[in-house]
C-alpha cells in the first residue's frame, strides 16, 4: 500500500495551532474590558459584574474537557474549528446587541449578554484542543518548548488587546469596535481552517492507513505520543490517574487565576486607585502580557530542570505577591506585586504541561481536557468571589480579595509536595 504524504511539519503544526489559540483568546478580549460599561448602564453590583466578566470562562473552561478529549480521535482540527465558529457567533451577537440597544435600551438584556458571552468563551476552550494538537507533533523531550510557546504566545491576546482596546473604543466607539472585532475573529477562523494540519498519525489514520503503519510513519516524523482510542476511553483513563487531578488543581490556581485577574484588574485599578480606562488597560496589559511572555520563554527551562521544581518555586512566589497585593496601599508596590504574580503564574502554567506527558503519557488529550477545562474554571469562579469581598468591605475589599491567591498557593504547595514524594515517576 502506498502511504500518503504528510502535510505540514512540527514547526508549522505548532505555529498554526498557536495562532488559532491567539484568535480564540482574542474572542473574549473585548468583552472583559467593556463589561463595566454594561454594568454602569444596568446598575449592576460588584458581585454581578464579577459574574458578567467571568461568564466566558464558564464555557471556555467546561468545553475544554470534551473537546480536548476529542483530539485523541480526530487530531484536533475539527473540534478547534467548531469552537472558533461558535466564538464568532457569540461576538457577532454582542456586536448586534451593542449597536442595537446600548446604552439606552439595555434593560432586560442581561440574559442575552450572558448567552453571547458564553458563546464567545468557546474561543478560550480552544486551548485544550490546540495544546494537544501541538503536543502530538513533538517528541517528549521537547514538550516543554512546544507547550510553553503555544500557551505563552496564545495567551498574549488578552494583554495585548487590554492595552489597545480602550484606545480603539475611545477613537471609534464601542459599537464600531465590536464590528471590527467580529471581522477580525472571522478572518482568524478562516486562516486556521485553511492552514491547520493534524499530527502525522492522525493525517494517515483519517486516510484509512492501518494503525501499525500510522505509528511507524509518524515515528519517523518525530511523533512519540499516540492516543488510546475513543473520547470516553481517553477521559476515563486519564481520570483514573491521580496525576491528572494534581495537575488540574495546580492549573486551576494559576491559569484560572490568570484568566480571572485579566478581567478583574480593570475593576481593581479603577475602584481602588481611581485611575482612568486607558491607564487601567495599560496596567492590565502589563499583567497579562508579562505572564504570557514568561510562559512562552520558560518552556526550555522546564525541559532542563523539570516541571515539578518550577511549580514549587512559582507557587511560593505567588504567595508572596498575593500578600503584597492584599495589604498594599501604594500603587508602585501594587504594580511590583502584579508583575511578581504574573511571572509566577506564567511559570507554573508552563510547568504543569511539562509534567503532563510525564505522568499521563497515554491519554494526553483526555488529561489536557480535564486539566485545561477544570483548571480554567477558576477564571469563572474567582471574579465573583473577589467581587463579593469588595461588596462586603468596600474599597479595601478590592485589595483583600487578592489574599484568595495566598490561600490557594499554600494549598497547591502542600498538594504538590505530597504528590512528588509519593509518585513513582521522576520529578519532572
Write a structural description:
It is built from 22 helices and no strands. With 428 residues, the chain is mainly α. The chain is globular, with a radius of gyration of 21 Å. The two termini are 41 Å apart.
Tags for this model:
428 residues, mainly alpha, Growth Hormone, Chain: A, globular
Sequence-ordered SSE layout with sheet pairings:
Elements: H1 10-26, H2 31-42, H3 46-62, H4 64-74, H5 77-101, H6 110-120, H7 126-137, H8 143-154, H9 156-172, H10 174-195, H11 200-205, H12 211-220, H13 231-239, H14 242-273, H15 277-297, H16 299-305, H17 307-327, H18 331-359, H19 364-376, H20 378-393, H21 395-400, H22 403-422
Helix pairs in contact: 1-7, 1-8, 1-9, 1-10, 2-3, 3-6, 3-14, 3-19, 3-20, 4-5, 4-7, 4-13, 4-19, 5-6, 5-7, 5-10, 7-8, 7-19, 8-15, 8-16, 8-18, 9-10, 9-15, 13-19, 14-15, 14-18, 14-19, 14-20, 14-22, 15-18, 17-18, 17-22
The helix/strand class is mainly alpha
Under the CATH scheme, which architecture would be assigned? Answer: Up-down Bundle
Name the helicity range.
over 70%
User: Treating each run of at least 4 consecutive H or I residues as one helix, how many helices?
Assistant: 22
In total, how many domains does the architecture comprise?
1
| CATH homology superfamily | MFS general substrate transporter like domains
Secondary-structure element order, N to C: HHHHHHHHHHHHHHHHHHHHHH
Number of separate strands? 0
The main pleated sheet reads as: none
Provide the CATH topology. Growth Hormone, Chain: A
Shape: globular
User: Overall pLDDT, averaged?
Assistant: 89
Oligomer: single chain
Amino acid at each position: 500500500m502506498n502511504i500518503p504524504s504528510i502535510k505540514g511539519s512540527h514547526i508549522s503544526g505548532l505555529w498554526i495551532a498557536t495562532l488559532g489559540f491567539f484568535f480564540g483568546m482574542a474572542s473574549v478580549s473585548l468583552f472583559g474590558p467593556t463589561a463595566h460599561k454594561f454594568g454602569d448602564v444596568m446598575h449592576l453590583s460588584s458581585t454581578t459584574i464579577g459574574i458578567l466578566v467571568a461568564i466566558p470562562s464558564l464555557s471556555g473552561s467546561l468545553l475544554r474537557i470534551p473537546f480536548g478529549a476529542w483530539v485523541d480521535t480526530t487530531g484536533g482540527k475539527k473540534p478547534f474549528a467548531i469552537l472558533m465558529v461558535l466564538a464568532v457567533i457569540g461576538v457577532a451577537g454582542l456586536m448586534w446587541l451593542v449597536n442595537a440597544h446600548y446604552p439606552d435600551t439595555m434593560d432586560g438584556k442581561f440574559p442575552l449578554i450572558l448567552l453571547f458571552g458564553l458563546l464567545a468563551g468557546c474561543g478560550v476552550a480552544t486551548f485544550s484542543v490546540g495544546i494537544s494538537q501541538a503536543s502530538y507533533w513533538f517528541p517528549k523531550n521537547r514538550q516543554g518548548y512546544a507547550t510553553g510557546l503555544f500557551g505563552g504566545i496564545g495567551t498574549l491576546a488578552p494583554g495585548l488587546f487590554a492595552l489597545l482596546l480602550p484606545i480603539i473604543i475611545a477613537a471609534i466607539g464601542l459599537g464600531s469596535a465590536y464590528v471590527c472585532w467580529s471581522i477580525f475573529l472571522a478572518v482568524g477562523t478562516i486562516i486556521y481552517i485553511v492552514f491547520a494540519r493534524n499530527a502525522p498519525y492522525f493525517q494517515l489514520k483519517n486516510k484509512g492507513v492501518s494503525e501499525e503503519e500510522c505509528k511507524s510513519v509518524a515515528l519517523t516524523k518525530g511523533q512519540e505520543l499516540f492516543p488510546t482510542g475513543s473520547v470516553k476511553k481517553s477521559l476515563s483513563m486519564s481520570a483514573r490517574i491521580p496525576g491528572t487531578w494534581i495537575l488540574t488543581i495546580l492549573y486551576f490556581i494559576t491559569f484560572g487565576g490568570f484568566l480571572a485577574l485579566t478581567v478583574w484588574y480593570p475593576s481593581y485599578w479603577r475602584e481602588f486607585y481611581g485611575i482612568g480606562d486607558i491607564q487601567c488597560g495599560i496596567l492590565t496589559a502589563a499583567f497579562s502580557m508579562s505572564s504570557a511572555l514568561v510562559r512562552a520563554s520558560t518552556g526550555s527551562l522546564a525541559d532542563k530542570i523539570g516541571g515539578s521544581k518550577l511549580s514549587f518555586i512559582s507557587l511560593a512566589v505567588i504567595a508572596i505577591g498575593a500578600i503584597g497585593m492584599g495589604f498594599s496601599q501604594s500603587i508602585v508596590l501594587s504594580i511590583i506585586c502584579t508583575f511578581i504574580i504574573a511571572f509566577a503564574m506564567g511559570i507554573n502554567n508552563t510547568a504543569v504541561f511539562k509534567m503532563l506527558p510525564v505522568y499521563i503519557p497515554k491519554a494526553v488529550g483526555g488529561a489536557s481536557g480535564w486539566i485545561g477545562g477544570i483548571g480554567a474554571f477558576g477564571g469563572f469562579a474567582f471574579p465573583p468571589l473577589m467581587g463579593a469581598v469588595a461588596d462586603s468591605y468596600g474599597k479595601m475589599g478590592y485589595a483583600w480579595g487578592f489574599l484568595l491567591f495566598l490561600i490557594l498557593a499554600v494549598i497547591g504547595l502542600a498538594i504538590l509536595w505530597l504528590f512528588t514524594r509519593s509518585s513513582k515517576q521522576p520529578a519532572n
